[in-house]
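User: Fold this; tokens only.

Assistant: Input:
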Amino acid sequence: MTPMEFILRFTFTNPDLDTTIVGTINPAHLQTNLDILRQGPVPAGPLTKRLSGLAAAGSAPKAGSGMIDDRDQTGYRADPSDPQ
């Protein structure tokens, strides 16, 4: 998964993020982005790997932040109404 694929899939499917800004003037790039988004949330393996890299750099999300620890297998919170 390329960094761009990861960022698009993570930001569009993370309920803790309110805004994702994506822009292009190239129709082929737009189609590529849409194809990437159709793949759904980032699988747990790549997400865990990237978050582990953040932890090693001292920038890991805090427990209970909703970034990974309270999500079900689809990548979404088990209870979307829960603010934590």
